[in-house]
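Hello, quick one for you while I still have it in my head. A protein chain has come my way and I'm curious about its shape. Can you walk me through what the C-alpha cells say about the fold? No rush at all, and the record is pasted right below.
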Amino acid sequence: MRLLGLCVRYILLPVLTALVVSGCSNTKFLKSNETLLKRNDVTINSDIDYRKIRRNIEENTSLENKLAEQARQQPNKKTLGIIKLNLSIYNRYYTTDTTGLYRWLMTNIGEPPVLFDTTLLPASVILMHDYMVSKGYLHSEEHFDYEIRRKKATPHFYINPGPLFTIDSVFFPSDTSKLSAVIREVIPASLLKKGNAFDADVIAGEQLRLFREIQNQGYFHFVRDNIYFEADTSKTTKTADLYVKIKQSTDDGEDLQVHYIDKIYVRPGYDPKLELSGVKQDTVLFNNFYFIDPGSTIKMDAIAEAIFILRNRPYSRKDYDYTLMRLSDLGVFKFISIRFEEKQDRTLDCTIFLTPGRKHALTTEVEASNIEDNVGAAVKFSYKDKNVFRSANTFDVSLNAGTQIPVFNKDSLIFSVTGQLNFYLRRFVVPFNTDQFSRYFNPRTKISLIANYYQQTKIYILNNYSFAFGYEWKENAMKRHVLNPVAISYVNSTILSDDFQQRLDDDPFLKQSFEDQLIAGMNYSYIFSSQGQYLHRDFTFFRLSAEVAGTLLYLANAAISDNNVDTSGKYVLFGTNYANFVRFEGDLRHYFQFTQNRSLVLRGAAGIAINYWNSDVIPYIK
C-alpha cells in the first residue's frame, strides 16, 4: 500500500492534474439549484491612508484581503493562486465508494465545492464591522449585495470606514500599590504610543506585556484579565485617551501576594507507567534541586544549568519560560512539564517532569538535481548522538556522496564526497572563568572537521580538509553570534589533463587558485531574524560575516626574519603557501507574507575579498 501511495502521489497525480486542467468547468457538476462561491469582493469607499494600521494586520496582508477573510463563507482554495485544482479533482473523481483509488483522490486531495448561501451574508457583515472597529474605525459602516453569473456567485461587501481613531494620551495607575509601582517601572517599553491607531490587538499586546511583568515579580495568582482598559473617545479630534486599570479578582487578595519558590523537584526519567506502578525511586539533593531517580538519563549538573527557577526567589514567568526553552534546547527530552504546588505559607514547590527521548538518530536522504545541462544525484547518511557522556553534548557525523552527469554535451563526470564531524558542548570552553557569561545566552562550543573530495574526471581533483573551533550564542530571540577563533583549511589539487595544465600555465592567476594552499585564520558571523517575533507577518533575515586569514602567520614570519620561502618569495608553512586575505559577506532577505501559504522573498547578497601580503589571488574555495 505504501508503494501504491507513492506511485499515486508522484506519478499518477501529475497526469491527473493535466487531465483535470484541460477538463470542463466545475459548475458542470452542480445541481440546478446550486451556485458555486467564486470569491469575496471587498471595496473600501475611502482614500484614507492605512499606513498607521498596516503593521497591525494579522499576516501583514492588505486590509481588503483581511476583511474578505472575515466572511462566513470562503471560496475553494486555488493552487498557485491560479486554478482550483483540489475542487476539480473532487468533482472529476467523485465516487460513493468507500475504498479505491477514486475514493483516495477525492478524500485526500480533493475539496468539496463551497455552495453560496445568502443567509450567511449578514453575519459576514457583522464580522467585518467588528474587525474595522477593532482596528480603530469606530464609525465604520458596511453593506452588501451579490451577483450570480453562470452559476458562480460573487458577494460584494462595501466598507465606509469613517475616520481612524488614534491614541492621544495613556494614563497608567498612579496609586501607591506595589502592582502600580511594577507597572510604572516598565512604562518606557509600552506598546501604546501617542498618534498610533486605537487598535484592539495592540491594546491586548500591552495587556499581555504588563501581565508578564507583574508575574515576573512573584505574583503567581495574578491573571491577565485583572488588567483592563478604559477609553474616552468623546473628543471631537477623533482621538482616544486610554486608562490602564488593575482590579482585584479574589476575595482574599491572593492575587496581590508575592509567592516564593521553595523546593524544586526534578524527575529526569519520568514515565507515567512507572508512576502508576508505585515503584519507589531514590532522591538526591544536588545544588538545591531534589533529583528523583537521577541516574536514568543525563547528569544532574547538565539539567541544573538549564533550570532558571531557583529556590527562595520570587516566582517569575520569565524564569519559567527560559527553563522550558533551555531544557528543550538540550535535545534529550521528548516531553517537558513544569508544575507548581502551593503551600499555606505562600511558597511554591516546583516539580519538573522530564521524559527522555531517543538518544540516537540515523537518517538517510536521497537528492536529485538538474544544474544547467547536468543531471545530478546524491545520497547522504547521518548519525547523531544527542547525549554524549550523559551531559547533553551533541555528536553528529555525516557522509554525503554525489555525482553530476552531462546530458547534452561531452563534459566529464563530476564526483563529490564529503564527510563531516561536529561536536557540540553546552558551555564555553575557554581558559578563563566564564561566570560573567549569562546563561540566558545559551552558550555552546563547537568543534568541526570536514573532508571533501571533488573530481572532474580526466581534468582535476581537489581535496579540501577543514578544522574549526568556535563558539555560538544567542543574544536574544532574534540575534545570534558565531565566532570561530580557529579556522584552518588545507587545499590540495591534482591536475589530470594536459590541456587543463596548459590553461593554468597560460593564466598565472588561475594557476594560483589550484595550487596547494593553507588557509589559517578566524571568522565571525552575526545573524538576525525577526521571524519569531512577527509570526505570520513580514520578517527580515540578515547575516553579516567577516573572515581574516594568514595575518598572524605572516607577522610571525616577518618578526623572526624567517627565510622559509618558496621560489616566488612567498612564505610557506610545512612546505605549503598560506593565504593572506580579508573577506566580508552580507546576506539580506525580506519575506513578504501575503497569506499563510503564499509569500515573496526579496534577497540581496554582496561580498568582497581582498588579498594582501602572501597572496596574489583569493583561494578558489573562497
Notes: The mean pLDDT is 87. DSSP finds 14 helices and 25 strands in the chain. Residues 125 and 142 are 6 Å apart (CA to CA).
